[in-house]
Structure formats: C-alpha cells, structure tokens
Amino acid sequence: MTYAGSEFVTGDDIASALLSCGRALAEAGEAEAVTVPSWEQGAITGVMILIGPASQIVVQDAHIDVEELIDVTAIARLQAIERRLRPVAAVDVDSKDRERWDADSRNQAWDGEM
Fold this sequence. Notes:
Number of strands: 5
Oligomer: single chain
Order of helices and strands: EEHEEEH
Strand order of the largest sheet: 2-1-5
Shape: globular
Number of domains: 1
Distance between the termini: 54 Å
Helix content: 25-40%
Structural class: alpha+beta
Number of helices: 2
C-alpha cells in the first residue's frame, strides 16, 4: 500500500477492509485515524494513518517472502467503523405472517390496517 508517499506491506484482507472503511468515511465526510498491522524488516509493526475524504491510497501486489499478514482484530475494527457509517437493518419476518402479494394488490389503496 502507498499512502501519503509512504509504502507499507499488509495483508490482502486488511488492505480491502482499509479501502472499504476509507470509502465509507469519505462518503460520510468524516476522517479517522486507524492503525493497521504491517510487515517491516521481517517483523509485524503498526502503521497509523488518517483516512477520510481526502485519502489517496494505492494498493498493489507485493511479492515478499513472508506469510500473508492476517489480523482479524484489525479487520473487525475497520469493519466496525464502516458499520457505524453504513448501518444496515435486517428484518426477519416469518412467512406465515406475510400476506400474499400479487399484481392486483399493487393497485389497491392501503386502508391503514394490518
């Protein structure tokens, strides 16, 4: 990854979560400092970056002789930021409680009763 003229190596899933989080922050017009793990001289370190509307992040494949960097905690933190900015509500409706909908019912006015 390249950010603000600096390069660092992280895992694919971490990079993907970082980009997705940055996109959500940009859409919301917000910025946030986040820390992501990276490889530096054979050791895992942390890189703190500010992501938001003005972020310009470049991701490219790196061919290095180390294992894929996986950090589920870092990914979860990034996904939590994204969920806060893009809330999703799920409604679980039991099919027996639903009325049958057909093309004719589209043209009928709702009477306000369920």
